[in-house]
Design goal:
Length: about 230
């Protein structure tokens, strides 16, 4: 039976400009994103949960701060003190939704990279998976009219996952499961690119089965190949 170990790898990813499905964090350092103000974490969670509920029901374009405040049972002044605009609260709600679906503190240590990567994903309930798809489908103009916030959301969503995957792949190199020259950054980009395309463009579920197929057909075979010198000479 596998064990878990505390993650110690530092943050090592940022973002690139590009289309919605190509806004992939790069190797620049990213500071961990704080969701709202630090005070009253339970109130913040209630507001972010309410934001996701409203997004899933009516979408970003019809959503208002009044509706979020009413759903959370919070005063509008409380909401605006934490998030001055609905774009900012949506950004933080999306980041929180993603972080709830992966294990970011205690990494699996099964002795096998494939099993480790799969174990990072928390098995979601059917209700949670369906709501997540409705949220993504309801983003509307958020990605185009609030591009900076959208890119910040993507960075916040994917940075922890890339950091975790990088550490797990480095472990696999240390135990000689992967070659020393395995292209870890490229493998992480493949995971993020195809995940983003599936969930944001195709609006399909990204579950354990689809992740296993991605690993088996693209990621793990690619990691088994030594990285080549890009210089054509």
């Amino acid at each position: 039976m596998g064990t878990t170990r505390k993650s110690t790898t530092g943050t090592s990813t940022g973002k690139k400009d590009g289309a919605n499905t190509a806004a992939i964090p790069d190797s620049a350092t990213v500071q961990p994103k704080t969701l709202g103000r630090k005070r009253d974490a339970s109130r913040n969670k209630a507001i972010l949960d309410a934001t996701l509920e409203v997004l899933a029901e009516i979408g970003f374009d019809s959503m208002t701060m009044d509706l979020v405040a009413a759903r959370a049972g919070a005063g509008k002044a409380t909401l605006y003190r934490r998030w001055p605009s609905k774009g900012e609260v949506v950004r933080d709600a999306l980041i929180g939704m993603s972080r709830n679906s992966i294990e970011v503190d205690h990494l699996p240590d099964t002795g096998n990279l494939r099993d480790d990567l799969l174990a990072v994903m928390k098995p979601p309930s059917l209700e949670y998976s369906e709501r997540k798809l409705r949220v993504l489908a309801g983003l509307g103009s958020f990605s185009t009219q609030h591009r900076k916030l959208y890119d910040e959301a993507l960075t916040g969503i994917f940075e922890p996952w890339i950091r975790i995957n990088t550490e797990l792949m480095q472990r696999a190199i240390e135990r000689r499961e992967l070659p020393a020259g395995a292209d870890i950054p490229l493998a992480c980009e493949i995971i993020i690119s195809l995940t983003t395309f599936r969930t944001s463009t195709q609006l399909k579920k990204f579950d354990r089965a689809s992740y296993a197929a991605l690993l088996d057909h693209f990621v793990l075979p690619g990691l088994a190949i030594e990285r080549r010198n890009p210089n054509p000479s």
